[in-house]
Amino acid sequence: MKKLLVLSLSLFLLTSCAYIEKCPLFKKASFKKISLKKFSFKKEKAHWGYTGKLAPENWGKLDKKFKACSEGKNQAPIDLSNFIKADLKPLTFAYNATATEIFNNGHTVQANVAKGSSFSLDGKDFELLQFHFHTPSENTIKGKFFPMEAHLVHSDKDGNLAVIAVMYEQESENAVIKSLWEKMPKKVGDKHSLADAAINAFDLLPKDKSYYRFSGSLTTPPCTEGVRWIVMKKPVTISKEQVDEFAHVMHHPNNRPVQPLNSRIILK
């Protein structure tokens, strides 16, 4: 009975104390206040992908920085049709540098390029940063998808972006793609040197440099708008085996669906 009374009294003292440091039972105890500043709660960087909850239709919900993916009015890719004739000046290329490495980032296979390659557009020089691939194509031409599409990503000195898109038609083997695929990393996060491959991005382009043009965005998060898009009219060839090899490494299609054109025009 005495033990029960002692236990009851102890519980009373514990539960009736507004501040635990002032409780009679804990006068001799030493307490330190825990500061949350000592803990680091790093926010996980938003992930995105092409399937399930991370698929393109959900990109705008994954991170506030991706808002343009769902709310933007000038998004890419698009279906290129209903063209407006225009006096499009010939593109001037100065691709003097070669690709340095090829990287599997889980979304695509990307080749980074050394400084020294550029092309001119609107009186500005746009330096080539990297090129990568999508299968099937992201942009379509008059409703037609292509087995693969290459994007050559450029930036001017002010950070304005320009992308040159090249379509691939399934026919004969592509020599440049062969050299790239020989070095293509199979695992996400892996990269391989291209120092001995001597791959110049100019060789990715068709002989006929005529093109379509429109204003769009990045086709991946954060879907930034204001990107100058140049889409080559003529495709280059690629073999079925080469397309399949890339698709196997990606494990799934890595193309964003076609976006609404809205009030934009497409020049040819």
Describe the protein in words.
By secondary structure, the protein is of the alpha+beta class. It has one domain: Alpha carbonic anhydrase (Carbonic Anhydrase II), CATH 3.10.200.10. The chain has helices at residues 2-16, 59-62, 67-71, 175-181, 240-250, and strands spanning 79-80, 92-95, 99-104, 109-113, 117-121, 124-134, 140-141, 148-155, 161-170, 191-193, 211-217, 225-232, 236-238. Strands 2, 3, 4, 5, 6, 8, 9, 10, 11, 12 and 13 form an eleven-stranded mixed β-sheet that branches. A hairpin with a 7-residue loop joins strand 11 and strand 12 (225-232). The longest helix has 15 residues, at 2-16. It is globular. It starts with a helix and ends in an 18-residue tail after the last helix.
The pLDDT mean sits at 87
Note the main sheet.
11 strands, mixed
Q: Unreliable runs, pLDDT <50, ≥5 residues?
A: 1-44
Quote the beta fraction. 25-35%
